[in-house]
Design goal:
Elements (H helix, E strand, L loop, with lengths): L3 H15 L3 E7 L5 E3 L9 E9 L2 E6 L3 E6 L4 E6 L8 E7 L4 E6 L5 E6 L5 H4 L12 H8 L6 H5 L10 H11 L12 H20 L37 E5 L2 E5 L6
Parallel strand pairs: 2-9
Antiparallel strand pairs: 1-3, 1-7, 3-4, 4-5, 5-9, 6-8, 7-8, 10-11
Helix pairs in contact: 1-6, 5-6
């Protein structure tokens, strides 16, 4: 699933390609891909004025005061094309007046495109916690958020209402750097451990942004090029950690957790 660095990379690519373009229409190739929450077909013949990210959501701002909200979920991707290429996994096409288009491809079909008036948005966005690189994501906030949570810290950091945009890859990586076991109960973290979670969350996300995200499965930028942070992963999908210890792989909340039980206590 694309996480914050991948979605941010896509947003930066989209800004280069489609800001200022006029949408002629959105073509839905698979039912239930596009949800319209406005009284009319509100994207036709309007211009994309800005593109933003909140958590893992991509938000297009339009000249007619409406927004398009895209969530890629597990396998979704947006590919900018200048021809009529359509793959078997293309679920919808945002067509522009200059005959170029933005293809929404999604193998698992969990992603979505939603259209809202500007004064509305996807309700899930309103529930998101602070961005990990923001000043609001700090030791005080995390301590207060964790004080009643007995779940493993790995599971807690995946909750989008706690911190927006983190996913399985980066939580595994930041906990390795912070030397904290993913099994440790959230409400038992010491002040020192809280400080390290904040520090290494920001460090890992910043590095991943610098390398345009991680491509270990489906992620591609809008020009269909992969990211490169996979070359810097320390435990995720590794057999040994940088110190030569065996990396453990377990299941937590239905997801694979990679960690070193020697380095992470």
């Amino acid at each position: 699933m694309p996480e914050l660095p991948e979605v941010d990379t896509i947003v930066r690519g989209l800004r280069d390609y489609v800001i200022g373009k006029s949408i002629s229409h959105i073509e839905e190739l698979r039912d239930n891909t596009v949800e319209v929450h406005t009284p009319d077909d509100s994207c036709n013949n309007c211009t994309i004025t800005d593109i933003k990210r909140r958590g893992k959501y991509i938000i297009f701002e339009l000249s007619n005061e409406n927004t398009i909200v895209i969530h890629l979920r597990m396998t979704g991707k947006l590919v900018y094309v200048s021809d009529e290429r359509i793959t078997p996994y293309t679920r919808a096409i945002i067509r522009f007046s200059d005959k170029t288009s933005l293809q929404f491809e999604d193998i698992r079909t969990f992603g979505s495109i939603k259209i809202f008036p500007k004064d509305m948005t996807d309700p899930s966005i309103l529930k998101l916690g602070p961005e990990p690189l923001s000043s609001e994501f700090n030791e005080s906030y995390l301590k207060d958020s964790l004080k009643k949570l007995k779940a493993p810290i790995k599971n807690i950091l995946l909750r989008q209402d706690i911190v927006a945009g983190l996913g399985n890859i980066y939580v595994c990586e930041l906990l390795y750097r912070a030397k904290i076991s993913p099994l440790k109960a959230g409400n038992t973290l010491t002040n020192s451990e809280l400080k390290r979670v904040i520090e290494y969350t920001k460090e890992v996300i910043s590095e991943a942004l610098l390398h345009n995200g991680t491509s270990v499965s489906d992620f591609r930028n809008v020009d269909d090029k992969p990211g490169s942070f996979q070359n810097f992963l320390r435990v995720y999908q590794k057999k040994v950690c940088p110190l030569g210890h065996k990396v453990q792989r377990i299941k937590q909340a239905g997801r694979s957790t990679f960690y070193c039980d020697k380095c992470q206590k």
